[in-house]
Amino acid sequence: MERLAVFPGTFDPMTLGHLDIVKRASRIFDRVIVAVANSPSKKTLISLEDRVLMAIDACAGLRNVSVEGFSGLLIDFLKAQKADFLVRGVRTVADYDYEIQLTGMYRAMMPELEIVMLPTSGHVSYISSTLVREVLVHKGDIAHFVPEPVALHISRKYK
Predict the structure, then answer these.
(1) Which of 69, 118, 136, 141 has an alpha carbon within 20 to 30 A of 126's alpha carbon?
(2) What is the pTM of this model?
(3) Which of 39, 91, 121, 133 is catalytic?
(4) Is 66 known to be catalytic?
(5) Of these residues, 3, 42, 107, 157, which one is catalytic?
(6) What are the binding positions for substrate in this chain (predicted)?
């Protein structure tokens, strides 16, 4: 039986921390879907289309990883994909506290779903999309914080 995991996020933009989680999840599960959320409440800087394209490029070398954009509730996406596992990355205690709250909601809505929290590796644990966007808005160099395809895409389109 195939173990399908979904790693969701807005990925605005995808960071080296996100890619760390994707790579590690790809070694655990048979198939991983990176689910790029269209989340109007988050007021993303980068369009959904570009975030999906950048994630596809960043994950290109991972044979069992695919990327899909989605709108609406994550639970609906998980059910449509027939996902067995939800992968969440955690960097800090605050992330963990928030994820524990979400876990209760996910389990109430989809009891058969298993939630797997992976701590980000130490060498990239300080990176967040929020901080990367701040550097980007001030026209700083983000190359040390994002996968190379993401940096190239952003330098061509958003600088």
Answers:
(1) 69
(2) 0.94
(3) 91
(4) no
(5) 42
(6) 10, 42, 74, 88
| Active-site entry in 18, 24, 51, 153 | 18
Q: Which CATH architecture has domain 4-158?
A: 3-Layer(aba) Sandwich (3.40)
- What band does 27 get if pLDDT is binned at 50, 70 and 90? very high
User: Look-up: residue for tokens 């644990």?
Assistant: 125
Give binding residues for ATP as ranges: 10-11, 18, 89-91, 99, 124-130
Distance CA 128, CA 44 (A): 14
> Catalytic site residue 91?
yes
Nearest to 21 by CA among 127, 111, 103, 154: 127
> In angstroms, how far apart are the furthest CA atoms of the chain?
48
User: What integer pLDDT is reported at residue 128 of this predicted model?
Assistant: 92
Question: Which member of 24, 26, 51, 129 is catalytic?
Answer: 129
**For residue range 37-47, what is the model confidence (pLDDT) as tens digits?**
998 888 899 99
DSSP state at residue 134: H
